[in-house]
Write a structure and sequence with these properties.
Helix content: 25-40%
CATH architecture: 3-Layer(aba) Sandwich
Shape: globular
Structural class: alpha/beta
Number of helices: 4
Order of helices and strands: HEEEHEHEH
Strand content: 15-25%
Distance between the termini: 36 Å
Number of domains: 1
Strand order of the largest sheet: 3-4-5
CATH class: Alpha Beta
Radius of gyration: 14 Å
Length: about 120
């Protein structure tokens, strides 16, 4: 089984310039997220985040991490099964994940994704 703990920690290190000592990975299906209920030091509570390709791999980890930090996430992807799985994995996190089927190769879709997010 693929473990995404290292890429998630690397992404956090690159994004925030430091490695969070409080990160304790916990398996959530195929993806990994920090301990549920842990307070977010990043101030994402109540913010809206759109993650394209957010149903699989690193995109799924990003979606779950933003939700763990309290953000409301719109997960745009073409994989309906994985999108619903990502919504289910986020059920106990501080923020929400909403899946939307969106093929970003279609030029009209990004505007639809943004309207759906608002």
């Amino acid at each position: 089984m693929l473990s995404l703990s290292a890429p998630l920690r690397r992404l956090q290190t690159l994004s925030h310039g430091l490695r969070r000592a409080s990160l304790r990975p916990q398996r959530l299906g195929m993806a990994t997220a920090a301990t549920i209920g842990e307070a977010s030091p990043f101030g994402h509570e109540g913010k809206l985040v759109i993650v394209t390709g957010g149903a699989n791999g690193i995109g799924q980890c990003v979606s779950l991490e933003f939700a763990r930090c309290g953000a409301n996430v719109l997960c745009a992807d073409v994989d309906d099964e994985k999108g619903k799985e990502t919504e289910a994995l986020a059920a106990n996190l501080a923020g929400d994940v909403k899946y939307m089927n969106a093929d970003m190769t279609d030029a009209a879709v990004p505007a639809k994704v943004v309207s759906e997010a608002q």
